[in-house]
Each structure stands twice: as C-alpha cells, then as structure tokens.
C-alpha cells in the first residue's frame, strides 16, 4: 500500500513535470498573435527565473483541489502554470537589490545577478502579465465566466490587498520609510502581513482549483479555510528554516530575517510557541478537508509536508 508521503511525492513529480512543460510552451521564443517579437535576453531571463527549479507547490494546490471535483491534471495545468508565473515573478522582484538583495535562488544566481537588474525587473513584469494571458485563454477553462472569475481571484490575491500589499507592509515594518527603525508589530499585525504577502497566493491555489471544478459554496469555504491555515503554517515553517535551516539545502541565504529586523511569528511568540502553533495549523488544515473524506488525503499530506520541509 502506498504511503501518504510516497503518494504526495508522486503527485509533486507529476504536477512539476506538467507545469514545467506548460511554462516551456508559454515561454517559447516565437511571438504569439498580437506580439511583434520576443526579445531573446528577456526570454532567457524569464526562463531562468521560472524553469528548472522549485517544488511547484502552488500548481499542486490548484491541481489537487480541482481533482476533488473530477478535473484531470491536463485541464487544470494552465491555471496552475498561471499561478506559478505570479509566484516566480514575485521571487525575481523580492531578490532585487531594492528589496531583499539576494544573490542565490534555488541554488543558482538570482535573475538580477545573472542578467542585470533592469532585465530582472522586466522579466518579473513579463511573468506577471503572462499569468493573465494564460488565464484568458480557453485552455484555462472553456467557460468565459469561469476565466473571468479566475483572473479576478488571482489579481486580488497577488495585488494591492494581497501579495503586493503584504510586501509593502513588510518593507514598512523593516523601517524602510521611518529612518531605518523597525516597527514593533503585534501578533495580529504580523498575521495580517503574512496572510497577504505569503498566504494569499497559497489560498488562491486551492480556490482556483475549486473554481475550475465548479465547487459549491460549502466546498469553496472548506478549501478557503484549508488554504488560510496552510498559508500561516508555510510562513512559520519558512521563518524557522531561516533561523535553523542550511543554506545549501535551501538553495538561498539564511539568517536574513533577523538581520533585516523582519517581524515574524517566531520572533513574536518564541520558537516553542511557534512550533506548537505550527502543529495546530496542520491539524486545522486537515480538519477543514473533512467534507472531502479520503479524497482530501493528498492535500492533508501537503499540510504535513509544509510544516516539516527542509527546503
């Protein structure tokens, strides 16, 4: 009998391969209808920032959530790739000198190191707009109303009240706009910041899957609750890895949160309470999947994976 962890590993592999192939197709050099040309340096930078790396967690959430409603991987992969484009754009921009100034991502030079800062900015812009190009096509979903709903969902998760707004709150908390003095944030403030910066895209993944599958309001609410708990768990685990993780295993620098004075739940609660909260969140995520019975096993294993990952 296949163990839950082995099943999840197989699903990760299948979704990662399908996502990679969809991104390769979307990032081909040949221009599409309405495009004049695709600059080769820009395309190389976009491929560097999005191909050959990463676990593809967010695409997995789209695919596995859609699968709860009978949607096969092939029908969900375009929306999944769109979400991954937004995630990869955010990493390229996060790594910029004006943001986190990181030199390594996934064990190799960041896009601004490999291609220059100007190209990195444009590569991120290109991936962001490509995401909505993908969602607008019929291969994302045959129903135009569903495509519109997908576009709005991803736009709001990634925009002002989601990831972009969360990044702004994070910069403000570091003291970027107050003379370099970090702000003292409450636990509630930190939760809001992290729910926007990190959690919004994770929650969007499961909600996009629900839209693809035509889920009813009850099922969508259950998946939203799961996605919310997963987002907090992911960020706590990430903050713990920044303190205790190995740079070689992570493929990026560690210890930068403390250096930058970032407010995290680990710093606010202490390591012991943060670990206890992490365990509670995994249980909460699993409980939210109860309406789906055994079909929710893969997503429940995702929550456990997120809490215990080493990279």
TrEMBL record:
Cofactor dependency: Mg(2+)
Record keywords: Isoprene biosynthesis, Magnesium, Metal-binding, Transferase
Molecular function GO labels: metal ion binding; prenyltransferase activity
CDD domains hit by this protein: Trans_IPPS_HT (cd00685)
Chain coiled-coil ranges: none
Membrane-spanning parts: none
GO CC entries: cytoplasm
One record GO biological process: terpenoid biosynthetic process
UniProt family annotation: Belongs to the FPP/GGPP synthase family.
Family matches, as NCBIfam families: FPPsyn
PANTHER family: FARNESYL DIPHOSPHATE SYNTHASE
Protein name per UniProt: Probable farnesyl diphosphate synthase
């Amino acid at each position: 009998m296949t163990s839950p962890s082995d099943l999840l590993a197989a699903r990760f592999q299948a979704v990662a391969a399908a996502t990679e192939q969809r991104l390769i197709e979307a990032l081909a050099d040949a221009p599409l209808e309405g495009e004049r040309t695709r600059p080769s340096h820009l395309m190389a930078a976009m491929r560097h920032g999005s191909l050959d790396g990463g676990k593809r967690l967010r695409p997995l959430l789209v695919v596995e959530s859609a699968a709860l409603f009978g949607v096969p991987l092939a029908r969900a992969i375009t929306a999944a790739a769109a979400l991954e484009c937004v995630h990869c754009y955010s990493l390229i921009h996060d790594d910029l000198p004006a943001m986190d100034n990181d030199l390594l991502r996934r064990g190799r030079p960041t896009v601004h190191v490999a291609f220059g800062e100007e190209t990195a900015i444009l590569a991120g812009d290109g991936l962001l707009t490509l995401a909505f190009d993908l969602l607008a096509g019929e291969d994302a979903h045959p129903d135009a109303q569903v495509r519109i709903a997908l576009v709005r969902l991803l736009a709001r998760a990634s925009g002002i009240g989601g990831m972009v707004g969360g990044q702004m709150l994070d910069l403000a908390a570091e003291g970027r706009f107050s003379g370099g003095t970090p702000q003292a944030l409450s636990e509630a403030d930190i939760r809001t910041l992290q729910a926007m910066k990190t959690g919004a895209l994770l929650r969007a993944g499961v909600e996009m899957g629900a839209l693809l599958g035509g889920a009813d309001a009850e099922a969508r609410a259950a998946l939203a609750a799961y996605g919310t708990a997963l987002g907090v768990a992911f960020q706590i685990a990430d903050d713990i890895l920044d303190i205790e993780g190995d740079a070689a295993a992570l493929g990026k620098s560690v210890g930068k949160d403390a250096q930058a004075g970032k407010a995290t739940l680990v710093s606010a609660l202490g390591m012991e309470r943060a670990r206890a909260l992490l365990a509670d969140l995994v249980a909460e995520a699993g409980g939210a999947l109860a309406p789906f019975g055994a079909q929710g096993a893969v997503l429940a294993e995702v929550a456990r994976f997120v809490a215990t990952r080493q990279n």
